[in-house]
Structure formats: structure tokens, C-alpha cells
Specification:
By secondary structure, this protein is mainly beta. It has 4 helices and 15 strands. The radius of gyration is 24 Å and the shape is elongated. InterPro entries: Leu-rich_rpt (IPR001611), Leu-rich_rpt_4 (IPR025875), Leu-rich_rpt_typical-subtyp (IPR003591), LRR_dom_sf (IPR032675). This is Protein phosphatase 1 regulatory subunit pprA. Pfam families: LRR_4. It comes from Acacia crassicarpa.
Amino acid sequence: MEDGAQSPAARDPNVEDPADVEDDSSSTVLDLTCCQLHDLDSVELPPHLTELDLTTNRLSTLDPRIGHLCNLKKLSFRQNLLTDAAVEPLSAWHDISGLEELVLRDNQLRKIPDVSIFKKLLVFDVSFNEITSPNGLCRVSNTLKELYVSKNEVMKMEEIDHFHELQILELGSNKLKVMENLQNLTNLQELWLGRNRIKAVNLCGLTGIKKISLQSNRLTSMTGFESCIALEELYLSHNGISKMEGLSSLVNLRVLDVSSNKLTSVDDIQNLTQLEDLWLNDNRIESLQAIVEAVAGSTEKLTTIYLENNPCAKSPDYLATLRQTFPNIQQIDSNIFS
């Protein structure tokens, strides 16, 4: 370092100096988060590393030494300055082909990188980039359990049908119009598709899924979830839904969010005896008594209900009625009760 120059940590007390990171050749975990590094020239990489976290730095190239850490299982380049050209060396790093988790979230990628060399990959994250197409996902290992491609520019759900072991699929904040190619994802537990342009629900026969988010889409109907009998959490806020339907078979549902829609009544949830959280705020629901009757099946279970910005919430005995009806209620809108 030149005379008079300061390390990132010296300039900013909130930034860790890599020199302060424990230097132990036997260490298996190296966390260099928020060191604001432009390169790793000043950093020693212990040969037995199993985890390397380079989150929130200024890296624009990959240090070739990483490619020789043969025990590496987890590698994160989250929030750096990596481009497509910068990550190309990954495809030839045979020594770390046993990698199980690769995070390239929040960089400058425009396409899915070639990670076909990683035959044991379980987690792959390319969210918050500038990816316009899913082309390349077909080369990602079918061992994958978690795939994150949110906040990109992807327009179609493609090249995912070989992910038979996938449990979490995150494609929120893209430009998707159609739900498709999900039929082979029989182990899927969570599907996150918020902030897209989807007009209709199509789960392609999936029945074991537990969490679904379709918030901020263009839905006008709730039909399509009837066979998802294992479903525990359903998020449908900020759509154009005018009627609650297709819910009676979802007997395991604990969380239901249909806020910010066009509902005038609460229907088809009498069978939902496990319901704990119910979000109905910002709709057009008139009758408070009708809500009480509709949620009668989960009177004992319900702990949270949102009804603000509905005509029924203007009733003078609004809070008192709800507290009397639901003995275990802990929150009504922004009101929290002990």
C-alpha cells in the first residue's frame, strides 16, 4: 500500500479490514463480507476452506486461487461488480466441482452463467441481475434444491423441468406472463412469483406445495389452487380479484393474504380451521358480521387479522367485536395486544 493510503476499514469504521480477519491455515470458513475489496491480492486463502463469503465487495474479476480450493462447498459473490465475462472462469474450475452453494446475487450478469461443472449444486442464486432469458438453466445440475432468479428481466418459465429435487423456486419481479413447465417439480415446497404479469393460476398438477406467492400480478380469479391440499401460506395481495373461491379444500392453510384486491365479501374459508393470519385490508368489504361468520372455523386459531381500509372497519365497535370473537387474537391491523 502506498504511503499515506488508508485501507477501506480505516476510511470507514463500519467496513472490516481484511487484515483483521483471522488468519488460520486450518480455518474452513472465511467471511470477507463488507470489506470493500477490489481484489483479493492482500488476502490469504487457506487451502482447506469449505466456505468463502465475499458479499458486498467491489470485485470485478475472479481470483483464480479460488478455483483450487478443492474442499469448497459454499461460495458467495453477492453484491459485487461481476459481469458475464468475469464469471466465465467458473466453467473450468474443476477442483471445486463439488460446490453445493453458489451465490451470484446482485451483480451485473445479463445471462445465466455456465455452472454445469458443479454436479452437486444445491443452491444457485442469480437474483438482482439483468438476466433476460432462462437459457442456461438446463445446464444447471438436477441436484438443485433452491433456485433464485428474482429481480431480473426473465419473460418465460423455461429450462426448469429437470429440477426434480427442487424445493424452492423464486422468480419474483420479472416479466412472466404465464405459469408453465412446473409439472416435473414434484418436490417443490415454495413458489415465489410476486411482481410479474401473470393473469391466471396454473400449477401444472403440483399438489404438495406449501407456500405460494402471486402478489402484485394481474389475477382476476382465485381458481387454480383447489388441488394444493398441503398449502400452508398463500399470498395474493395487489391483484384484481373480486371473489374468494377455490379455498375450501385448503384445510392446512395458516396464512391467507388477499389484501388490496376488489373483494366485497369473505367466502369459501369456513373449512379453514388452521387459519392464523388473515389479510383482507384495502378491499370493499361491507359487513363485519359476515366476516365473523366466515372465519368461524378458525375462531380459536386466528392471531392476526387485517381489515383496515374496508367499509366494515369504520364500525364503532370494530375492534371490540373482533377481540370478543377471536379470543387468541394478537394483532388487528396495526393494533397489537398482549
